[in-house]
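Appendix B, example 12.
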Amino acid sequence: MIESRNYLRQQALPTVWCPGCGNGVVVKALLEAVAALGWEKDDVVVVGGIGCSGRTPFILDFNTMHTLHGRALAFATGVKMAKPNLKVIVAMGDGDSSAIGGNHFIHACRRNIDITAIVFNNGIYGQTGGQQAPTTPKGKRSSTSVHGALDTPFDISGLAMAAGASFVARTTSYDFKECGRYIKKGLEHTGFSLVEVMTACPTYFGRMNELREPRDMLLYLRDTSNPLSEEEERQLRDELQRVRTGIFVDERRPEYVETYQALCEELGGANRT
Protein backbone atom coordinates (compact mmCIF):
# COMPACT_ATOMS: atom_id res chain seq x y z
CA MET A 1 0.00 0.00 0.00
CA ILE A 2 1.35 3.41 -0.98
CA GLU A 3 1.36 5.90 1.88
CA SER A 4 -0.84 8.87 1.02
CA ARG A 5 1.79 11.24 2.45
CA ASN A 6 4.13 10.17 -0.35
CA TYR A 7 1.88 12.09 -2.75
CA LEU A 8 2.61 15.40 -0.99
CA ARG A 9 5.26 17.93 -1.93
CA GLN A 10 6.80 18.32 1.48
CA GLN A 11 8.63 21.51 0.47
CA ALA A 12 5.26 23.15 -0.30
CA LEU A 13 3.93 22.60 3.22
CA PRO A 14 2.35 23.98 5.32
CA THR A 15 -0.66 24.92 3.23
CA VAL A 16 -2.07 28.44 2.95
CA TRP A 17 -5.46 27.29 4.23
CA CYS A 18 -6.84 28.77 7.42
CA PRO A 19 -7.06 26.72 10.63
CA GLY A 20 -10.29 24.75 10.54
CA CYS A 21 -10.66 24.90 6.76
CA GLY A 22 -12.19 21.72 5.40
CA ASN A 23 -10.01 21.68 2.28
CA GLY A 24 -7.26 19.71 4.00
CA VAL A 25 -9.80 17.03 4.94
CA VAL A 26 -10.91 16.71 1.32
CA VAL A 27 -7.33 16.52 0.04
CA LYS A 28 -6.46 13.83 2.58
CA ALA A 29 -9.52 11.84 1.49
CA LEU A 30 -8.42 12.22 -2.14
CA LEU A 31 -4.88 11.05 -1.43
CA GLU A 32 -6.07 8.04 0.55
CA ALA A 33 -8.35 7.11 -2.35
CA VAL A 34 -5.50 7.39 -4.87
CA ALA A 35 -3.23 5.37 -2.57
CA ALA A 36 -5.89 2.67 -2.20
CA LEU A 37 -6.06 2.39 -5.98
CA GLY A 38 -2.26 2.12 -6.15
CA TRP A 39 -1.90 4.74 -8.85
CA GLU A 40 1.60 5.94 -9.75
CA LYS A 41 2.34 9.65 -9.49
CA ASP A 42 3.16 10.02 -13.17
CA ASP A 43 -0.22 8.57 -14.17
CA VAL A 44 -2.20 11.25 -12.34
CA VAL A 45 -2.96 14.85 -13.34
CA VAL A 46 -4.57 17.27 -10.89
CA VAL A 47 -5.88 20.52 -12.35
CA GLY A 48 -6.92 23.44 -10.15
CA GLY A 49 -8.65 26.72 -10.83
CA ILE A 50 -8.65 29.92 -8.78
CA GLY A 51 -9.79 30.13 -5.19
CA CYS A 52 -8.92 28.35 -1.97
CA SER A 53 -9.45 24.90 -3.49
CA GLY A 54 -7.41 25.97 -6.51
CA ARG A 55 -4.33 25.82 -4.30
CA THR A 56 -4.67 22.03 -4.09
CA PRO A 57 -2.25 21.25 -6.97
CA PHE A 58 0.51 23.24 -5.22
CA ILE A 59 1.00 20.60 -2.54
CA LEU A 60 0.49 17.43 -4.59
CA ASP A 61 3.36 15.50 -6.14
CA PHE A 62 1.52 14.54 -9.32
CA ASN A 63 1.44 16.19 -12.73
CA THR A 64 -0.32 19.40 -11.74
CA MET A 65 -1.71 22.56 -13.32
CA HIS A 66 -2.85 25.80 -11.71
CA THR A 67 -5.08 27.41 -14.31
CA LEU A 68 -7.49 30.30 -14.89
CA HIS A 69 -10.61 31.15 -12.92
CA GLY A 70 -13.43 28.89 -14.06
CA ARG A 71 -11.34 27.20 -16.76
CA ALA A 72 -9.94 24.20 -14.89
CA LEU A 73 -12.32 21.82 -16.69
CA ALA A 74 -11.34 23.25 -20.07
CA PHE A 75 -7.65 22.58 -19.37
CA ALA A 76 -8.47 19.15 -17.96
CA THR A 77 -10.48 18.30 -21.07
CA GLY A 78 -7.49 19.19 -23.22
CA VAL A 79 -5.21 16.98 -21.12
CA LYS A 80 -7.62 14.04 -21.27
CA MET A 81 -8.12 14.40 -25.01
CA ALA A 82 -4.35 14.54 -25.63
CA LYS A 83 -3.39 11.81 -23.14
CA PRO A 84 -6.41 9.52 -22.57
CA ASN A 85 -4.35 7.11 -20.46
CA LEU A 86 -3.86 9.69 -17.69
CA LYS A 87 -6.08 9.85 -14.62
CA VAL A 88 -7.39 13.43 -14.66
CA ILE A 89 -8.75 15.03 -11.50
CA VAL A 90 -10.05 18.58 -11.15
CA ALA A 91 -10.15 20.47 -7.84
CA MET A 92 -12.65 23.33 -8.00
CA GLY A 93 -14.54 25.60 -5.67
CA ASP A 94 -18.27 26.17 -5.83
CA GLY A 95 -17.78 29.60 -7.42
CA ASP A 96 -15.11 28.31 -9.80
CA SER A 97 -17.40 25.54 -11.02
CA SER A 98 -20.88 27.05 -10.96
CA ALA A 99 -20.30 30.77 -11.60
CA ILE A 100 -17.56 31.81 -14.04
CA GLY A 101 -16.95 28.15 -14.91
CA GLY A 102 -20.57 27.08 -15.08
CA ASN A 103 -20.66 26.69 -18.86
CA HIS A 104 -17.57 24.48 -18.86
CA PHE A 105 -19.13 22.46 -16.06
CA ILE A 106 -22.41 21.65 -17.81
CA HIS A 107 -20.67 20.74 -21.06
CA ALA A 108 -18.14 18.51 -19.31
CA CYS A 109 -21.12 16.72 -17.75
CA ARG A 110 -22.89 16.56 -21.10
CA ARG A 111 -19.85 15.15 -22.85
CA ASN A 112 -19.35 12.59 -20.07
CA ILE A 113 -15.61 12.91 -20.49
CA ASP A 114 -13.61 10.67 -18.15
CA ILE A 115 -12.63 13.28 -15.56
CA THR A 116 -13.24 13.29 -11.83
CA ALA A 117 -14.30 16.74 -10.62
CA ILE A 118 -14.14 17.37 -6.89
CA VAL A 119 -16.07 20.51 -5.96
CA PHE A 120 -15.12 22.00 -2.60
CA ASN A 121 -18.41 23.70 -1.75
CA ASN A 122 -18.01 26.07 1.22
CA GLY A 123 -20.90 28.30 0.17
CA ILE A 124 -18.80 31.46 -0.10
CA TYR A 125 -15.87 33.07 -1.95
CA GLY A 126 -13.26 32.36 0.69
CA GLN A 127 -10.06 33.57 -0.96
CA THR A 128 -11.16 37.02 -2.09
CA GLY A 129 -13.00 38.41 0.91
CA GLY A 130 -16.03 36.30 1.70
CA GLN A 131 -18.40 37.45 -1.02
CA GLN A 132 -21.70 35.71 -1.75
CA ALA A 133 -21.29 32.68 -4.01
CA PRO A 134 -23.84 30.92 -6.24
CA THR A 135 -24.12 28.32 -3.47
CA THR A 136 -24.49 30.60 -0.45
CA PRO A 137 -27.57 29.29 1.40
CA LYS A 138 -30.56 31.60 1.28
CA GLY A 139 -30.57 33.97 4.23
CA LYS A 140 -26.91 33.38 5.10
CA ARG A 141 -24.60 36.35 5.34
CA SER A 142 -21.52 37.17 3.32
CA SER A 143 -19.48 40.33 2.79
CA THR A 144 -21.74 41.24 -0.14
CA SER A 145 -25.01 40.08 1.43
CA VAL A 146 -24.70 41.39 4.94
CA HIS A 147 -28.47 41.20 5.46
CA GLY A 148 -28.70 37.65 4.15
CA ALA A 149 -28.54 36.16 0.67
CA LEU A 150 -31.71 36.62 -1.39
CA ASP A 151 -30.78 34.24 -4.18
CA THR A 152 -31.77 30.60 -4.28
CA PRO A 153 -28.46 28.67 -4.26
CA PHE A 154 -27.33 26.37 -7.04
CA ASP A 155 -27.79 22.65 -6.46
CA ILE A 156 -24.47 21.59 -8.00
CA SER A 157 -25.17 17.86 -7.84
CA GLY A 158 -28.64 18.38 -9.29
CA LEU A 159 -27.16 20.48 -12.08
CA ALA A 160 -24.64 17.75 -12.85
CA MET A 161 -27.36 15.10 -13.05
CA ALA A 162 -29.50 17.27 -15.32
CA ALA A 163 -26.51 18.01 -17.55
CA GLY A 164 -25.65 14.33 -18.01
CA ALA A 165 -22.87 13.43 -15.58
CA SER A 166 -22.70 9.66 -15.17
CA PHE A 167 -21.49 9.63 -11.56
CA VAL A 168 -22.71 12.18 -9.03
CA ALA A 169 -22.17 12.09 -5.28
CA ARG A 170 -22.41 14.61 -2.48
CA THR A 171 -20.93 14.41 1.00
CA THR A 172 -19.41 16.70 3.63
CA SER A 173 -15.99 17.22 5.15
CA TYR A 174 -17.59 16.15 8.44
CA ASP A 175 -18.16 12.65 7.00
CA PHE A 176 -14.50 11.84 6.34
CA LYS A 177 -14.81 8.11 5.65
CA GLU A 178 -17.75 8.65 3.33
CA CYS A 179 -15.86 11.43 1.57
CA GLY A 180 -12.95 9.12 0.79
CA ARG A 181 -15.27 6.32 -0.30
CA TYR A 182 -17.17 8.56 -2.71
CA ILE A 183 -13.99 10.04 -4.16
CA LYS A 184 -12.60 6.53 -4.73
CA LYS A 185 -15.81 5.52 -6.51
CA GLY A 186 -15.57 8.64 -8.65
CA LEU A 187 -11.95 7.90 -9.56
CA GLU A 188 -12.80 4.31 -10.50
CA HIS A 189 -15.79 5.35 -12.62
CA THR A 190 -15.37 5.68 -16.39
CA GLY A 191 -17.08 8.88 -17.49
CA PHE A 192 -17.61 12.28 -15.91
CA SER A 193 -17.67 12.01 -12.14
CA LEU A 194 -18.69 14.75 -9.75
CA VAL A 195 -17.99 14.51 -6.05
CA GLU A 196 -19.40 17.58 -4.33
CA VAL A 197 -18.05 18.04 -0.83
CA MET A 198 -19.84 20.48 1.44
CA THR A 199 -16.93 21.87 3.39
CA ALA A 200 -16.13 24.30 6.18
CA CYS A 201 -14.93 27.90 5.92
CA PRO A 202 -14.86 29.18 9.51
CA THR A 203 -12.91 32.30 8.52
CA TYR A 204 -15.60 33.83 6.32
CA PHE A 205 -18.78 31.77 6.21
CA GLY A 206 -18.49 30.83 9.87
CA ARG A 207 -17.55 34.26 11.12
CA MET A 208 -20.36 35.90 9.13
CA ASN A 209 -22.96 33.39 10.34
CA GLU A 210 -22.21 32.90 14.04
CA LEU A 211 -20.20 29.72 13.49
CA ARG A 212 -16.86 31.13 14.52
CA GLU A 213 -15.13 27.98 15.72
CA PRO A 214 -14.09 25.16 13.36
CA ARG A 215 -16.03 22.71 15.55
CA ASP A 216 -19.16 24.82 15.11
CA MET A 217 -18.81 24.59 11.34
CA LEU A 218 -18.37 20.82 11.42
CA LEU A 219 -21.49 20.44 13.51
CA TYR A 220 -23.31 22.78 11.09
CA LEU A 221 -22.36 20.47 8.20
CA ARG A 222 -23.54 17.47 10.21
CA ASP A 223 -26.84 19.05 11.14
CA THR A 224 -27.70 20.49 7.71
CA SER A 225 -27.02 17.33 5.69
CA ASN A 226 -29.19 14.24 5.41
CA PRO A 227 -27.45 11.13 4.03
CA LEU A 228 -29.45 8.80 1.80
CA SER A 229 -30.17 5.33 3.11
CA GLU A 230 -29.05 2.33 1.05
CA GLU A 231 -32.66 1.78 -0.04
CA GLU A 232 -33.01 5.43 -1.11
CA GLU A 233 -29.77 5.15 -3.09
CA ARG A 234 -31.08 2.08 -4.93
CA GLN A 235 -34.40 3.79 -5.65
CA LEU A 236 -32.65 6.89 -6.98
CA ARG A 237 -30.42 4.81 -9.26
CA ASP A 238 -33.52 3.05 -10.61
CA GLU A 239 -35.32 6.34 -11.24
CA LEU A 240 -32.32 7.73 -13.14
CA GLN A 241 -32.62 4.83 -15.62
CA ARG A 242 -36.02 6.09 -16.77
CA VAL A 243 -37.17 9.17 -18.65
CA ARG A 244 -39.66 10.79 -16.31
CA THR A 245 -42.57 12.84 -17.64
CA GLY A 246 -45.03 15.25 -16.08
CA ILE A 247 -45.08 18.66 -14.40
CA PHE A 248 -42.15 18.63 -12.02
CA VAL A 249 -42.50 22.13 -10.56
CA ASP A 250 -45.57 24.36 -10.39
CA GLU A 251 -45.41 26.56 -7.33
CA ARG A 252 -45.39 30.23 -6.43
CA ARG A 253 -42.05 31.39 -5.08
CA PRO A 254 -40.87 34.84 -3.94
CA GLU A 255 -39.81 36.86 -6.98
CA TYR A 256 -36.29 38.28 -6.79
CA VAL A 257 -36.97 41.96 -7.61
CA GLU A 258 -39.92 42.03 -5.23
CA THR A 259 -37.79 40.54 -2.47
CA TYR A 260 -34.97 42.99 -3.15
CA GLN A 261 -37.29 46.00 -3.16
CA ALA A 262 -38.89 44.84 0.09
CA LEU A 263 -35.46 44.62 1.67
CA CYS A 264 -34.58 48.15 0.44
CA GLU A 265 -37.80 49.51 1.89
CA GLU A 266 -37.18 47.74 5.16
CA LEU A 267 -33.64 49.08 5.40
CA GLY A 268 -34.75 52.55 4.29
CA GLY A 269 -37.37 52.64 6.99
CA ALA A 270 -34.82 51.48 9.55
CA ASN A 271 -32.40 54.22 8.48
CA ARG A 272 -35.07 56.93 8.74
CA THR A 273 -35.81 55.93 12.31
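Strands lie at 44-48, 63-66, 87-93, 116-121, 124-125, 131-132, 167-172, 193-198. The chain has a mean pLDDT of 89.
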